[in-house]
Write the structure tokens for this entry.
Amino acid sequence: MSRSVIIVDRFAPEARALRRTFDERFADPRSTRADRFVWDYWHVPGQYTALRTPAWTYFPARAYAALHRRLVAWGRETLGCHDISPPWLSLYVDGCRQELHGDLPHGPWAFVLSLTRGRAFTGGQTLLVRDGVLDFWHDFASERSVEEGQLLRAIEPRFARLIVFDPRIPHGVRPVAGTRDPRQGRLVIHGWFVQPRPFVRGPLPARALAARIAELTEALGGWLGGLPVAGLVSVAFDVDRRGAASAVRLLSDTTRVPRAEERARRALVRRIRAAIAGWRFGAQRGGSRVTLPIVFTRE
């Protein structure tokens, strides 16, 4: 499990219909139809250059709603995030880019869904600073050379690919070069997964789960001590008819601590999983599956 980035290829069948809408609106470059005039040229010198528009208003309501439901369902079950932020549709043609930056405090996970067709340009990759760079001096070797590939991870904008990453990590978009045709540029829908909170599929009562969470929260106060941890741990587990928790598994984990505290961080995550494995809820009408996000903040 990557603690920095998740990549899901062929994520959304809806991508074809959304892309078709975009292509139809730009098919005739001389057209003056109103829906061609909705783009904001977003330029912050030295930082951002792209064309953008709200995705939820750009596309037909039915086509966009299907994608929205898919993203929300995936975020609830995989990340423990209840919703997504209102997403942007961004277009990158020659000269467009995003320099390295971090997103705080928009949401615990960011996402980029590519609607890019073909590769008529160079650049356009999503760039993420590698974990080793963020703690560069820990294992520094005076005789070891370093090139971009060791410093940055570059992810291609393949059609229908979903990239989900920890937005605290410095990230950007490599400059696009080679085309000024909107239909040949880098086209992506992007935003953040937000509102981490428990998600239950099945008859488990919310009040029963809330009681166990309150107990865990109280215990965490003692387990943490002075551990300077920040991030999101999302755990999934099943509850059988007898009310016993089972199959406790770690879905995602963006918690971070200083290098010297890494062993304690790992022990904390194991302790959380062990505590959940011991939960009992009493007899149930049927089985349930629970996604439980746990947020740690540091000031």
Summary: The mean pLDDT is 94. The chain is about 25% helix and 30% strand. The longest strand covers residues 186-196. The helical segments are 15-25, 55-58, 61-78, 131-134, 148-151, 206-224, 262-277.
